[in-house]
Specification:
Blueprint lengths: L12 H13 L12 E7 L1 H4 L10 H11 L4 E7 L5 H8 L8 E5 L2 H5 L4 H16 L4 E5 L15 H16 L3 E3 L1 H8 L3 H4 L1 E3 L2 E5 L1 H16 L7 E6 L13 E6 L11 E4 L2 E2 L3 E4 L3 E6 L9 E9 L7 E10 L18 H10 L23 H9 L7
Parallel strand pairs: 1-2, 1-3, 3-4, 4-5
Antiparallel strand pairs: 6-7, 8-9, 9-13, 10-11, 10-14, 12-13, 14-15
Helix pairs in contact: 3-10, 4-6, 6-7
Length: about 400
C-alpha cells in the first residue's frame, strides 16, 4: 500500500483538449476521485493512550493524524492505547481490532520492563502481533519505547530499555518492516528532553503535551520517509553497564539505518579513547562491527564510542559513548563516579554538575550519590576529595 500520492507528469496539449471535450460532454464520467483514506491503528499502552495529556483525543495519535494530512497523506489515526498493558496482554487484545485497518503502529513494552519480562520475550510478543496483522494484509510500523526519567525506580539508566529498543530494531530489519524510533530521538537526539518533554515530579514515564507532539512527529517522519535519525544499534554485546564481563569477551555491534542508509566508509569505533581495530562487514542497511579483546584481556571498565552517519543530505550523524562494561574482578574506589578505576578531575566535574540534586529530581544520578543517602551534597564531595588521585588499576 502506498502512503504517498503518486507523481503525475504534465499532460500534453492534445491530452488537455481531449479532457476538456470529455468534461463538456460527460462531466460525471471524469470527476476526480479523492485518494482513499488510510486507517492507522495506534496500538500500545499508556503512552499511546496519552496519559499526561488527558488521554484521547489528546496524545500522539490525534496529532499524528493532523501531521499526516498536512503532509498529503489522507489518514485517520485510531487510538487504541490501554494504560498498564504488557505485550502479553496486547497479544490477546489486538486480534479483535484489526478489521478495516490499513496500518498498525505498534509501540509497547514499557510495562514489560516493570513486570520483569525479558527484552527477548517482549520482542517475540511484538513479532507475534505484527504477524497477526500482516496475516490480515495490515502493514506494520514497529516503534521503540520512550526512555524513562533518570530518577525512575526501575531501569533509571535505561539499560533494559536500550536492550529492548535494540531488539525491536533487529526485529523490524529482519522482517522488513518500517520503524519509528522514539527511544533514540528522546534519549540521544533531543536537547534536554527529560526536562522539556516529560511530566516529571512523581511521574517517571509519561510525556507532557509538547512531548506527545514530538512523538507524533517521530511517527510522521517514519511514515512519510523523512529521515531525521542517524544509524542506530541493534545487538550490542557486551551490553551497556554489563557487570563481571569476561576479560576475553569479543565486542560485537549491529548497526542499522531505516532511512537513506549508512555511510559505510564513515563508521568508526573508539575504545578507551583509542581507535579500535574493528572488523566491519555488511551493507548500507546493516553493518556488523567486531573487536577482539586485546592480548592479556580487557581491564577495569571498557568505554566504547561510536561514530557513524547516514547518506541523507544533510547527513544525520552520531558521535559519542555507546556502551561501557565492567570486567570481572574490577574494584572501584569511592568517588570514582566515571567508573574508570581512578578518582580524578573528571569525577569532580560530574559531581559538580549534579551537586544539590536529590532522588526524584531530573538531575539526580545514583552513581554520584556516593554514600547512598538520596542526596548529592557535601558529604559525597568530602568522600571524593579524600580519595582524589587514587587508582585501582
Amino acid at each position: 500500500m502506498s502512503l504517498r500520492r503518486p507523481n503525475r507528469s504534465a499532460p500534453s496539449a492534445l491530452l488537455l483538449a481531449t479532457f476538456f471535450l470529455a468534461a463538456v460532454l460527460a462531466p460525471a464520467a471524469i470527476a476526480p476521485t479523492a485518494s482513499a483514506q488510510a486507517v492507522y491503528l495506534a496500538f500500545g499502552d499508556s503512552i499511546t493512550f496519552g496519559v499526561g495529556a488527558g488521554g484521547p483525543p489528546d496524545g500522539y495519535p490525534a496529532e499524528l493524524e493532523d501531521l499526516l494530512n498536512q503532509r498529503g497523506v489522507n489518514a485517520q489515526v485510531l487510538n487504541e492505547g490501554l494504560p498498564g498493558e504488557t505485550t502479553v496482554d496486547g497479544r490477546n487484545r489486538l486480534g479483535g481490532l484489526l478489521g478495516g485497518i490499513d496500518v498498525l503502529l505498534l509501540m509497547e513494552g514499557t510495562n514489560d520492563i516493570n513486570s520483569d519480562i525479558s527484552p527477548e520475550t517482549t520482542a517475540f510478543n511484538l513479532d507475534a502481533m505484527a504477524d497477526a496483522a500482516e496475516a490480515r494484509d495490515v502493514e506494520v510500523v514497529h516503534a521503540t519505547i520512550i526512555p524513562r526519567l533518570p530518577s525512575a525506580g526501575k531501569d533509571s539508566r535505561n539499560v533494559i530499555g536500550g536492550q529492548l529498543s535494540g531488539a525491536i530494531r533487529e526485529l523490524a530489519h529482519e522482517e522488513n518492516r518500517n520503524l519509528a524510533d522514539p527511544f533514540y530521538v528522546f534519549f540521544r537526539g533531543l536537547d534536554d528532553a527529560f526536562d522539556r518533554f516529560y511530566l516529571g515530579g512523581e511521574d517517571k514515564f509519561h510525556l507532557n503535551a509538547e512531548g506527545y507532539d514530538q512523538l507524533a512527529e517521530v511517527f510522521a517522519d517514519a511514515i512519510t520517509g523523512e529521515d531525521e535519525v542517524p544509524p542506530v544499534t541493534g545487538l550490542v554485546s557486551p551490553f551497556d553497564d554489563q557487570q563481571n564481563t569476561s576479560p576475553n569477551a569479543q565486542l560485537q555491534i549491529d548497526l542499522y539505518d531505516f532511512g537513506n542508509g549508512i555511510d559505510v566508509d564513515f563508521t568508526q569505533l573508539t575504545i578507551d579513547d583509542s581507535p579500535a581495530n574493528a572488523t566491519i562487514g555488511g551493507d548500507s542497511r546493516r553493518q556488523t562491527l567486531r573487536v577482539n579483546a586485546p592480548a592479556g584481556g580487557w581491564e577495569c571498565v571498557v568505554i566504547v564510542d561510536l561514530q557513524a552517519r547516514d547518506t541523507a543530505v544533510p547527513a544525520n550523524a552520531r558521535d559519542g559513548q555507546l556502551v561501557q562494561f565492567v570486567i570481572q574482578g574490577t574494584r572501584f574506589i569511592q568517588g570514582d563516579i566515571t567508573r574508570d578505576c581512578r578518582v580524578n578531575g573528571n569525577d569532580l566535574l560530574d559531581l559538580a554538575r549534579l551537586f544539590g540534586s536529590q532522588r526524584g529530581d531530573s538531575r539526580y544520578r545514583g552513581f554520584a550519590d556516593i554514600n547512598g543517602d538520596d542526596s548529592i551534597d557535601g558529604t559525597d564531595l568530602a568522600i571524593l576529595s579524600s580519595n582524589f588521585g587514587q587508582s585501582s588499576k
